[in-house]
Amino acid sequence: MIKTFTGPMHSGKTAAMIATYNKIWNKEHVKCFKPKSDTRDIGIMKSKDYGDGVPSIGIDTFEEILDYVDDSVTTIFVDEAQLMQGNVSVLSYLSIVNDMDIYIGGLNQTSEQEPFLIMPQILAISDEVEVIKASCYDCGREAPYTYFEGEKKDAILVGDEGYVPLCARCLLKRRGSVETRKILILSKQEKEE
Ligand SMILES: [Zn+2]
User: Fold this and answer.
1) How far is the CA of 135 from the centre of ligand 1 (A)?
2) Which CATH superfamily is domain 2-192 in?
3) From the CA atom positions of the chain, what is the Rg in Å?
4) Which of 2, 14, 46, 148 shows a CA-CA span of 20 to 30 A to 78?
């Protein structure tokens, strides 16, 4: 079984992961993973709602999970999965062949509303997807989008700084319809012209 919690920044994806983890009484058979490239809380699945968080093994690729699991492991958690690399079919393998319960947390979209790297593949192999909305920073409605305030040097920045959750109306207000059109529907070549 593969269940994925997704949504924008500050929506409580990790909190949902930790709540699921906390419900498991016997944690001997559970392993948690996080990408090493997430430098915010190295080795810990952490949310502001849950003090110390949950210790996690740092990995770069899904294939590395195979080195850490044996027949005794029934359940795994992979947080910040949008930063993971490798073959997502490793998760399908562990779900089908090892009969594992797999919980994944990750951003569905970038702050330009593009599908986030490997997340479309993860969503495609999930048995269940829970899209968690944040609260709009500007108006308080449900916020499905992440918006980045300020100058961005890399396509994908790691960290929370400068990111705000917004609803569609407030996203459009901040970005304007011309820029939104440019970002969402113009080709790379058209954008550069
Ligand atoms: Zn709003």
Assistant:
1) 8
2) P-loop containing nucleotide triphosphate hydrolases (3.40.50.300)
3) 17
4) 148
